[in-house]
Design brief:
The complex is a heterotrimer of chains A (296), B (335) and C (419).
Chain A lengths: L2 H32 L6 H17 L4 H22 L12 H22 L9 H4 L1 E4 L2 E4 H23 L1 H11 L1 H6 L4 H26 L8 H14 L5 H17 L8 H15 L3 H12 L1
Antiparallel strand pairs in A: 1-2
Helix pairs in contact in A: 1-6, 1-9, 1-10, 1-11, 2-3, 2-4, 2-9, 3-9, 6-7, 6-9, 7-9, 10-11, 10-12, 10-13, 11-12
Chain B lengths: L14 H24 L7 H26 L8 H16 L4 H23 L4 H21 L9 E2 L8 H24 L1 H11 L1 H6 L4 H27 L1 E2 L1 H4 L2 H15 L5 H19 L4 H15 L3 H20 L4
Antiparallel strand pairs in B: 1-2
Helix pairs in contact in B: 2-6, 2-7, 2-9, 2-11, 2-12, 3-4, 3-9, 4-9, 6-7, 6-9, 7-9, 11-12, 11-14
Chain C lengths: L8 H21 L11 E7 L6 H20 L3 E3 L4 E3 L1 E7 L4 H14 L4 E6 L1 H7 L2 H5 L3 E5 L3 H4 L6 E3 L4 H17 L7 E8 L2 H16 L4 E9 L7 H10 L3 E5 L2 H14 L5 E3 L7 H7 L7 E4 L8 H14 L8 H18 L4 H10 L1 E2 L9 E2 L11 E6 L3 E6 L15
Parallel strand pairs in C: 1-4, 1-5, 5-6, 6-7, 8-9, 8-10, 10-11
Antiparallel strand pairs in C: 2-3, 12-15, 13-14, 15-16
Helix pairs in contact in C: 2-13, 3-4, 7-8, 10-11, 13-14
Classes of the chains: A mainly alpha (296), B mainly alpha (335), C alpha/beta (419).
Amino acid sequence: MSAVDLLNLLISALLLAGVYAAMSVGMTIIYGVMKIVNLAHAGFLMFGAYFVYELYELGIDPLVGVLLAFPTFFLVGIGVHWLLVRRIPTSDKPTLTSLLLLFGLWLVLQNLGYLIWGSADRAILTPRIFSVFRIGPISFPAVRLMGFGAAVASVGGLEFILHRTWFGRSVRALMQNSDAGQIVGVNVEKTARIAFGVGIAFAGAAGGLLAMLYSFSPDFGGPFLLRAFVIIVLGGLESFAGVAVGALILAVVETFSILVLPANYQPAIAFSLLVVALLVLPEGVAGLWNQRRRWA
Amino acid sequence: MESTAPLGMTEPGNSAASSRLRFALTVAPFLLLALLAVLPLFDLGPNTIRLLFVTFVWVTVSIAWNILGGFGGQVSFGFAVFYGLGAYATALAINRGVNAFFSLVLAGGVAVLASLLVGVPTFRLKGPHFAIATIGVSEAVRVVMTNLSITGGASGYRIIETGTFHQVKHYFAALALAAVAVAVSAFVRRSRFGLALIAIREDEEAASDLGVDPFRTKLLAHALAALLTGAAGGVYAQYAAYIHPQGVFSFNVGVAILLMPIIGGIGTVWGPVIGGVVYGLIHEELIASFPQLHLLIYGSLLILIVLFEPGGVVGLLDKSYRALTRTRRVSGSHP
Amino acid sequence: MANYICNPKKWYSLSVGLLFLALLAVLPGCGKAGKGGPNEIAVGVVLPITGREAKPGQYQREGIELAIHQINQGGGIFVKELGKKLPVKEVFYDDGSDQAKSAGLVERAMSADNVVAVLGGYSTALGEAESVMPDRYQTPWITTGAGSPAIFGRGYQYIFGTLSPIDLLGYTTADFLGTLVDHGKLKKGLKLALALENTDHGIDYGRGIDKWIQEHPGYFNVVFSEKFDLGSTDFSGLLQKVKNARADILLADAHLQDYITMHRQYIQTGIYHQMISYGARGPESDARKALGDGTNYIFAGIWWSAKLPYPQVQRFNSDYQGFANHPPDSWYPAPAYDAMRALATAIERAGNLNKTAVRDQLRTVELKDSLLPGQVLRFGKNGQINTPFVIVQNKPDAKVDIVYPPDAATGEAIAPKPR
C-alpha cells in the first residue's frame, strides 16, 4: 500500500476518532459523576438524530439543529433525572440497578421512536454532506471534519468547565468520593442532576451530528453505545482527555484492522476490544499512565 | 415479625389446616405437570401446542438465567451465545445422524464449554462491568457465527427433515426440559450450592471470608445455566428446522432471556416460570396484534420493577398475599 | 435487588395458581377458532412492515392488497364446489423482519387461521425460515420476496416463488456490462470489484457474475471480492479496500438500508468507478431522497420496472397510484400482485378450497398477462419462476430508464459514468 493510501487511512482514522469522541462524551459525564452506565444513551442519540432531522424538514440547517439540541436535551436530561434516576441509590461503584433502569428506558425510547416515526430509515441530505476538501491526494469529508471539530470543542469545553469553574470542582469531588463531597458542602443531588442533564445534552447533540453522517432509524444507537463504552473503559476516567485517547485507540484499531481482516469481521473488533479492555485495563489507559507516574 | 412468619406455623390449633395446605402446595406443581402432559389429548389445535412449546422453551431459559443472575446476582446479557450454540450443535448433530436426545445432550455440552470460555476471563469483573463484557462477548460471537462457513454463515443452517413432522414430540421434549429445569432450580435453591450463590450475590467478599470459593461457584452456576439454555436452543432448533445467526445469536434474544426472570420475580424458583409464561403466551399474542409495542411494555415493566418492586410479579403477589392474610389474621378468623 | 429467602410457600402457591389460571384463560382463546369464516377465502400474508425490511415489505403488501381489492370488486373468486363467488379475506401479520417470528406467524396462519395459502417472506432469510412450514401443514406458500434458489432446492412440495433466482440477476448484470463492451461504450478487460452482502443473496449474485465471466473470457477480471455484514453503520473500511483495489467497475449487492449508507460514504470518500451498481437496488425513492443526485447513473438489475412497455403494466401503475396514493416503488409490488393473481387463478381452477388441490393447480397455472418481464408467469418444477431481469439506470432529475434488454429499453445506457 502506498504512502498516500496509508496517510489517507490515518486521516480517516483521526476523523473517525473525532466522531467517536463526540459521541462518547455524554456517556462519560454520567458515568464519571454518578457511576451510572447510561444504556439509554443510545436512545438519546437516536432522538437527537430525529430532532435535528425534524428541524431540518422545517428548513433549519442541521448545524443549527445540533446547537439547538443542547438546551433541549439538557432539559430532557434534567427531567429524566428528576423522574427516574434520583429514585435509585447510587454509590461510588456502578450498580446493576441503575444499569437495568436505564436499559428499560432505552427500550421505551426505542418504541417511542417507532411509534412516532415508524421504522423507515431517514437521512439528512444537504450539499454539505457530499462536500469533500482535498489537500493534494488526501481527502477530508466535510462532515467528518465537523465531527472532529465538535469533538475538540466538547472535550476542550468540558475540560475547561471541569478545571476552571466551581461547578467543575464539585463534579470532580463527586467523581472521587460522593460522601466526602457531601461533607465539604457539595449539593450532591443538584450537581448530579445538572451533570446528568449535561450528559444527555451531549448525547442529543452527538445524535444530531451522527445524523449527518449515517442514515438512522429507531434502533439506531446500539453499535455506538458499545463503542462509547469501549472508549470510556479504554480512556479511563481521570479526565475527558481520556475520552480522546480512548476514541483514538478504537478508531485506529478499527480502521487499520481492515487491512488484515476481511471487512465482515470488522464489527467484532469493537466488541473484542471491549472485553479485552475490561479485563486487562479496567482503569483504562489513563490508569496505566498514572501508575507510571507513581513508579517514577 | 409476625408478617414474615410462615403461614400457620406459629398459630396454635391450625396444624391440621396448615399441613393440608402444605401438602396441597407440594402436590400442585406435579398436578400442573400432569395437566400439561395430557393437554395434547384435547383437540386444541396446532397453534395452541405451538404457543405452549414456545412458552416451555422460554421458561427453561428463564429459569437457567435465574440460576446465575437471580440466585447468584451476576447479570449476564450474553445468554444468547449458549442458546445459539446449543441450536447449532443440535442442528449439526442431527444432520450427521445423531438421534434427537443425544443431540440435545451435545448441545448442552457445547454450551457448558462455551460458558467456561466466557466465564473464566469475565468472572473477575463485578456487577455492571461483567454485564457489559457479556454484551461484548455476545455480539462478537454473533459476528463470528455469521461469517463461519461450516455452519452456513449468514445463510443460516437447515436441519434436513426426514419423515413426517410430529408436533407433539417437540411439545413433550420442551415440556420435559422445562420440568427438569424447574426441578433443578428448586434443588439448587435448597442446596448448599444455592446458599453459596445467594451469599455471593449479597456480598462476595463476606462469602469468600466464610469459605465459599466465589470464582468456582460462579463458574459452576454459569455452566449449569448454560447447559439448560443450550438444551433449550437445541429443542427450538429441532422444531424450527432452520436457524440463522441473526436470529438465535441476536442481542434481542439475550435481552429477552434476561427480562423474563426479572419481570417474573428474580431470585425465586417460580418467578422465572411466570416470566417465561408471560413472555411466551402474551408476547406471541402481542406480536400478532401489535408488533413493536412490546419494547414499550417490557421497558416500562423493567423501569417499574427496578423502581418499585424488585421482586417482580412474585414480589407483588407476595405483598398482596400478605396484605390479605394480615387482615384475616388480625380479625382472628381461621384460614 | 431484594431477596426472598424467607418462606417460599406463599408465593409458591399463588404462582402455581396463577399459572393454572393463565393456562385456563388463554387456551380457549387461541386454537380452534380460525380467522377464516365459511363465506370467504382466507389468504395469509406474512410480511415485514416494521424493522429492517419495512419499506419493501410495505410495498409488497400494497401489491397483494390491490390484487385482493380488484378480485373482490368483481365479487370474489368463483368456487365451483360451492356454486358461488367468495370474497378473499386477507389475514395479515407483521413479522418485524425477524425470522423466528416470521416462521411462527406462518405456522399460526396455516394451523389456526384456516387459510387456503400464505403469501409472504420478504428477503431470503425470512423466506428460508418460513419455507419449513408449508409442507408440515400441507398449505401452499408463495414467496414474493425471497429469490434464493437454495430454498427451492430442498424437495419441498408446497412452496412457490414469484421472484426469479438471484444468480440470474448476477448473470444478467454481467451480460449487460458485456453488451456495453460490445457496443464500444466500455473497454474490454476492465477490472471488477465485488462487495457482496454476507447472505445467500450476495453469494448467489456473485456466483451469477462469476458464471458469466467464465463463459465469456477476456471481458472482465475480478480483482476484488469481499463480503460485508448486513446493517453495518460504517463501510469506510470496506470502501478503503475497494479504493485500494483500483477497479474500474464496482458491483455491490446490498439491501436498501446498507445501499444508502454505503453509497453516502462512497461519495464522501471520493472514489470513482466507470459503472456502479448495488445489485437489485438503485431506483428506490428512499435512496433518491437520502442521496439526491448521488444516485445518478447507478444501475440495478431488478425483477420489474414500472416503465415496462406492456399495457397491463400501465394499467397497474395507475391502479396502484389510485389505491396506495403513491407510484409503485422499484420492483417490489409487482411479484406480490402477480402472486395473488396466480393464487386466485389456481383456486378457481381447483374448483374447491382444498389446499392440496390448489397446490396442484399452482403447479400448472399460467398467467398470460403477467406484469413481469416476458409477460408470462409460470412456476418452474421446483416452484420458482424464471422470468428475465431488466436493468435500469438512474438518470438525472430523478428519471429512471430501462437500459437492458434492448427490446424493453426506454433509454440509452450512459457508460462510463460522467465524473
